[in-house]
Amino acid sequence: MLTKTTEKVDMFEKIVLPRSSSLRLKKVVLRAPRDGCLKGLFKSKPRTPADVVRQTRSLLIELESNAGRGGTKRDEKMAELNKLIQEMKSILYGNDESEPDVEACAQLTQEFFRDNTLRLLIICLPKLNLEARNEATQVVANLQRQLVHSHLIASDYLEINLDLMDHLISGHVLESEHMKKFFDYIQLPNFDVAADSAATFKDLLTRHKSTVAEFLSRNYNWLLGDLLLNRSNSAVMVRYVSSKDSLRIIMNLMRESSKNIQMDAFHVFKLFVANENKPPDIVNVLVANRSKLLRLLGVFKADTGEDQSFEADKAEVVKEIAELEPQAPVNVSGELYKDLVI
């Protein structure tokens, strides 16, 4: 092939080209096949699923060891890590053009659980940006369902790395929206599901004492509101709204600077006011603080979206407080702890 090409060039030179031009043309023609071969020879291969996991693991190790360092180089590494996480997600979930390949998913899963990539990813989750965290969570969730030779290797890995569950629970589950769903799960009619949910909920609140204590202090109002507003807890609710000390706490929480705390406290406060069988102590605390409460409620505003229901509840609360009559001499100790500042 190369000999024939050379012969044609020689013939073309003799007929058309001067000597200097013909030499240049011969070099170009003879070099072209070799250049094309070399270009194909050194062309980069596409990354295999195992390669993607290995590169991800390498960047996670680097991210963990250089946690406090910043700069352009770190930003570049983070951008590359984000791309790799997106690539893993694409392999596991497929894309608009194709469904996930079973063999590729199996390769990725095996490599992922071979050298503690899951541990590294969980530890580094707080360091990732929001989009990367969401995609990493989807990757991990998918890997839990991936069968390799009809076997869930993720299950085996977690059985010998139970501390990862503790890390996830203490660092992420308590702060997620899923925490609130336990109140629904515990009351499901399916006994097995309800019992498992109750046991898990108990572990969440008892195994990580310092983390849970901080969580409860920040989320006291919505936890309390969810418990008391649930019909199945009516006995607990009646007992709670009969406590003068509880009423004092809730009234003070209504004056917190946080709008969320104010609103959550109001939804609990209205239970005290709506109770048709208020003990005398509760009535007297409300009467003693009537003017302050009415002033406070007068400037209460709801977030957009619950205006109508809130305004209706507030109107009922104001009307009830305004019509209350003391049932015994007003106890000065029932007043709010601090003066109201409107």
TrEMBL record:
InterPro entries: ARM-like, ARM-type_fold, Mo25. Pfam families: Mo25. It comes from the Eukaryota. Coiled coil: none annotated. PANTHER family: CALCIUM-BINDING PROTEIN 39-RELATED, OS07G0585100 PROTEIN. Belongs to the Mo25 family. This is MO25-like protein. It comes from Ilex paraguariensis.
